[in-house]
Structures are given as structure tokens and as C-alpha cells.
Amino acid sequence: MKKILTLAIVTFLLGGFCFNANAQERKDKTSVKKEATTAKKAIKTNEGSDKLIKEYEVAVDQCVECYLAKQKGNQTTKEGNFDKLLAKAEDLKGKIEKTKDALTKEQVDRFNKANKKLSVVYTKG
User: pTM score > 0.85 for this model?
Assistant: First the structure.
């Protein structure tokens, strides 16, 4: 009887260990899937952020060109055009600032560089 009881206890304990190992394996697979999904979202966010920053850089460059042309007395540059370009740049800047925590260091550097260009227009404008 003692042998049967001991065997039952050992079997119960081993069964529990196997169950825990399977549960841990399932948990590991679930966390790997979650990490992969998070990584895919981050990549999509970074790609979207790259496009947004590129648009912002182009808009800032256009603002600077328009501003310099206006300063040289170029009459073909209209004030309304400059205002539209500036508004577009400001809109893009706001969108980027909302996602600033998700940006890479390189993206932040590009954004800051474009901001410096735009600030020159504001300080001289």
C-alpha cells in the first residue's frame, strides 16, 4: 500500500511539472507573438514617421526658398503662397510632435534640423 501511495504522489508531482512546462511553453509562444506584433507596429510607425518627417523637411525647404525669394524682392512669390507653405509645415510639425516618443534618434535629429531651418525664417521674418 505504501508503494502505491508513493507511486501516486510521484506521478502526481511529475504530472504537475509537465503541466507547468506546457503552460510555460504556451506563455512563451504568446509573448513571442506579442513582441513580433509590437515590432511590426513599430516598423510601420517608423516608416510612417520617416514619410512625415520627409514631408516636413520639404515643406520647410519650400518655406525657406519662398522667404529668401521674397527678401530679394522677387514679385512672383506671393504672400499667400508663403502663408500656405508655413501653415503646411506647422501642421506637419504638430503631427510629428504627437509621435515624438516613438521616433528613433536619427528621426529626432532630422526633425530638429528642419526645426532650426524654420526658426531662422521666424526670427528673420
Answer: no
